[in-house]
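Aim 2 progress update. The chain analyzed this quarter is reproduced below.
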Amino acid sequence: MSDSDGSAVAGGHASHVPVLARRVAEWLALRDGGVYVDATFGAGGYTRAILAVAGTRVIGIDRDQRAIAAASDVVKQAAGRLQVAEGRFSDLAAIVADRGAAEVDGVVFDLGVSSMQLDEPGRGFSFRLDGPLDMRMGRDGPSAADVVARAGERDLAAIIFTLGEERHARAIARAIVRARVNKPIATTLALAEIVAGVVRSREGAIHPATRTFQALRIFVNEELAELAHGLAAAEQVLKPGGRLVVVAFHSLEDRIAKTFLLERSRAPALSRHRPEVAALPPTFSVLTRRPETPDQAEIAANPRARSAKLRAAVRTEAAARSGAVETFLPPLPLPGQFAHGAT
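Predicted structure tokens:
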């Protein structure tokens, strides 16, 4: 969906082209009669690639109501082979069950923000055009404006540093807190100007506000937590031999996918305190020893592809593991505490 260099994260413009679509289809090992989950339906790029194989069926999921509303043409063309649902990654297992699929043959995640979202000023994802500072992919929870208005300087700095990998995070947080005393920071350009006043960039480099916008978007939408929950849900619904494919554009997303698959592809370490854990067999076998990346031809045709990393794994016959997924996540405050009326 998006990359982290600025052209498609916060300020750039590009038409939506599914990244590594051919390789995604190949790693899914598509087959006649197979049932697949496109966990980030978006414009339906991966779904179309899956449906191109005769006899396949797809359950498409997207937390963006607009993407679901726009899916009607694809649903009609699929002639009963596609069902779409509004929901988060963490809803994946429940959505699959509600659509009558006890198990599925493959799940694909395409992470980040789509060009359709970036191109709508009213969504507040981009500073290319002025709009309300929203950034929500769904319809609930605090907006980016709420976080900017209510988070303390320390929390803001932690969010921007951790999720944006921005080394000027403290100075940016200080400038935001200082500016909001005089006037609410309600628009994308207002925030971008505040950040640009603190962070200087070289000619030809990404816009100074790119990493701050990225951090706020990831935070507001709880993207890392949703990914961790989504991976655990995929583990639950995949049948033995089913394939999991993750396309990430951000180092933190890729790190979570890598860590999850590493943990799930090996037996837990022996422990005299929890001997029963040691008996748990691996639930995945990793297919990509190193992440796949786009070739130069794809990058030239679709610049947003350049930071993409694809990881794939196959489900074993072992039972899905239970337990919290928070161990995969960086320690940060929860977005809900910055909502209207939160105490």
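The mean pLDDT is 88. Residues 129-220+332-338 form a domain with the DNA polymerase; domain 1 fold (CATH 1.10.150.170). These observations will guide the mutagenesis experiments scheduled for the next reporting period.
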